Amino acid sequence: MQSKIIRYLQVTLLMPVALACSQQGSDSLPAVTAVQHAAITVDGHLPDWKDLSATFEVRDFQSPWVDTPFGSTVFRAIADSAWLYFSFEVADSLLVMLPFAEESDVASGDRVEIFLSGDSTLGNYYCLEMGPRGDVLDYRAAYYRQFDDTWGLPGLTVAAQAIPGGYTVEGRIPIGFLRRLSEETLPTGNFTVYMGLYRAEYRKAHTEADPVQWLTWVDPNTAAPDFHVPSSLRAIQIQEP
Prior knowledge:
With 241 residues, this protein is mainly β. It contains 2 helices and 13 strands; from the N terminus they run αββββββββββαβββ.
């Protein structure tokens, strides 16, 4: 457990959806742009992202189940030959977190999440949940809700920072891991994965009744909040330089 925390901490389907992004991939898939080298330091500070000419960007997070105002959420990503870099910038006037003793503590507070799969059925998928301190809960799963909490993503780096009015989370995922997820087997070139982007926003202390509001990039059209379903992920193209 300690080794996962040391990885880098600092006080760190397919459904129509509105999307803000800099480029589109083939067949109108949203695309993560690739550069030869992304000059990004994973430290939770985001000024280096403003120097990038093109990034994949999502701003249209929604709350399908509770019509309560929430602060903005911005997700960005860019790829190079070694890594997919990502960042979240979250507006949040009240940060709610448990003291971190084990990974499951992340699931009881404010956090952002990325789900990844190589296919639309969620036969196997991988989940990264990251809190405002950079604490990480990562696990693998199979549909429906068959969790393997012993799994951790090798090479994952995450950092976070509290900022005025919210927090940032920044990280990088090995491109090799994403390529192995893809159903495409070409050794080079663009490839497709399925991605879900989420946020858990605690509107009040987690000890109070009904404290959490669930936000998502793609509305899964479920009666109750549930992201562990194929309809909550969307196909995206990962470009390579």
